[in-house]
Amino acid sequence: MRSYTKEEKSWMWYDWGHSAYSVIISTAVFPLFYKAAAEGAGVSAADSTAYLGYAISISTLVLALLGRILGTIADYQGFKKTFFAGFSLLGIAATALLAFIPHNNWELLLVCYMFIAIGSAGSAVFYDAFLVDVTVDDRMNKVSARGFAIGYIGSTIPFLVSIAIILLAEQEILPLSVTSASQIAFFITALWWGVFTLPMLRNVRQKHYMKREPRILTNSFKSLFQTFKQIKQHRAIFIFLLAYFFYIDGVGTIITMSTAYGTDLGIESTDLLIILFVTQVVASPFAILYGRLADRFSGKTMLYVGICVYIVVCVYAYFMKSAFDFWVLAMLVATSQGGIQALSRAYFARMVPKENANRFFGFYNIFDKFASILGPFLVGVTAQLTGNTSIGVFSLVILFIIGIFILMRVPEPGSK
Predict the structure, then answer these.
(1) pLDDT by residue (tens digit) across 175-202?
(2) What transmembrane ranges does the database entry give (predicted)?
(3) From CA 52, how far away is CA 50, in angstroms rounded?
(4) What domains are defined for the chain?
(5) Residue 66: which residues within 8 A CB-CB, separation 6 or more?
């Protein structure tokens, strides 16, 4: 990363550390750990997947409501990093706590998972908003995409260590139970996440802000309402957020529930872990590729490409029957999941007033979070009603179609 500034590098290192949560807790080890615990307690596969979906929905609802006020307060000088540090600490501490919860207490596992999700997503609100502080407009595609790219690579290191410990425990080469091995993986994740949060805390500062004033909380509520009116006045921002609401719903649902879905299809946990590891490796260069192609063809064009890939993913998922099909599905997701998220973040960052970045990113994340309530809830309800998770995944196609239709109507940055 020799061509990047110290602030840009420090900002990216958080992706490197935080992405360990994304793969080990959100996608891979924890879902398998939780599913095994629920199954051991007599909970059916469809019900346990549904409960996981409900837990995701509840945690995102809490953050969506809380994050808006905090995001507005964070526009004042000195608050952005404080809130970022607070949510990061919550997520890291709750991740470490997973290592000490008894495996037979699947309900407490879900509660702890919700706190981790709130900490992770909460820190992401302010992390995303820091993009306007660490770089300039014409570098945002590049920096945002590189952050996702190194995040994928960074996550593979603790993931590999965790997989090795779990597989060696399964083969009885290590004197550990699989449960203990998984709990060690949770502690490794917390440590990795914590260590690589430090450069962000030490080297990145809030450059764009409003001066502090009396009655910050009261004024924040007023500013929140004013920002909503501003968003409606900024036609491009408002339409983009509507489009983002729909297509990111499908993206987030597929990412967070893929492992539970694969388990329901009968794919072995070892196969799932290997597939997810390869997905992280493949996703890294594709995230960089999306950033470069966005500079050549425009960010919106590459968002179209990413959404179309996800439509194919949903259709293919409906017919998926074997581990090979899951491989194909995972590689399709790997080509676009980092790119679509990175370019959405960069596209939005170029559109918003920089001194109000936190409150605008607050709305960006509220659309993200409320979308994340709908998708998992839809899959959860459909799984329980039909006993078939595939139908729920297929239904996400409509969200991508609506998203791309609205995105076509987004004016270019700078338009009103």
Answers:
(1) 888 889 999 999 999 999 999 999 999 9
(2) 20-38, 50-71, 83-102, 108-127, 148-169, 181-201, 236-260, 272-290, 302-320, 326-348, 360-379, 391-410
(3) 5
(4) 7-202+216-407 (1.20.1250.20)
(5) 122
